[in-house]
């Protein structure tokens, strides 16, 4: 596996790779990330990953300084997964002084995560656009765990006519339903036991919705279920799967999305409805 840390090294190596399937990450890799690499391979593309803890997508009170980092472990996992190249830029390489461009995607970024984390999607869109410009991938693979992120990136790619196919990959879960996430390492043992209740509550709600139960009542019941488990919901919503607009009646394409705090840890999950 080729390891590159500067744009100059990247340009040289990129020329040797052919059609690339790109997996952008913030590191602390788990089986969810490796599934994205496997999906790139399966699509017949050369898998390339990036590891960059992007400061511009963290709010001032968020966990940038303590975000989990394990560069050596990550490199070993990517190599074992058959990744051809890993791009490890520094903050200075990614945001050189004088850098003055930010991408703001309106539409799907306006609700939910966008409201809870002001500026977050500007940071995501800007760094993803930069990464696409640097790597020039044919396709890029994103996890459905971050459903809204996929829709924001899709919107950006369409609006800017970027020649990249965005491929969503199903959420990888623990046996008890908890979506794998780098931030799960923040959970205490007791919190880890409770955390799967987010997925459980969403799964129950999907069943109720498909059985014809009223969405408003169903969403209320999810909030109750989370509160009973000791979680504080940031939002629980039934949305149009692409625009992320809330919907009051069940109609395709619908997605049930939620974020909840468990102690100091913020959990995210979502499921298709129908
Ligand atoms: N459980 C999962 N299944 C599939 N893809 C995932 C999973 N978790 C993360 N990903 C995807 O991996 C890519 C990189 O995500 P990132 O490095 O932020 O990991 P993360 O586990 O989502 O971290 P965080 O805890 O910060 O949310 C994103 O496209 C994300 O959606
Ligand atoms: C897409 C991404 C790598 C951009 O920093 C990040 O938001 C993530 O890991 O999901
Ligand atoms: N996987 C989402 C990246 C973030 O929370 O900043």
TrEMBL record:
Binding site for (R)-pantoate: 57, 149
Complex formation: Homodimer.
Keyword Protease attached: no
Name of the molecule in the record: Pantothenate synthetase
Intracellular or extracellular location(s): Cytoplasm
Species in which this protein is naturally found: Acidocella aminolytica 101 = DSM 11237
Miscellaneous section: The reaction proceeds by a bi uni uni bi ping pong mechanism.
Enzyme kind, highest EC tier: ligase
Cited function: Catalyzes the condensation of pantoate with beta-alanine in an ATP-dependent reaction via a pantoyl-adenylate intermediate.
Keywords: ATP-binding, Cytoplasm, Ligase, Nucleotide-binding, Pantothenate biosynthesis
Residues at which beta-alanine binds: 57
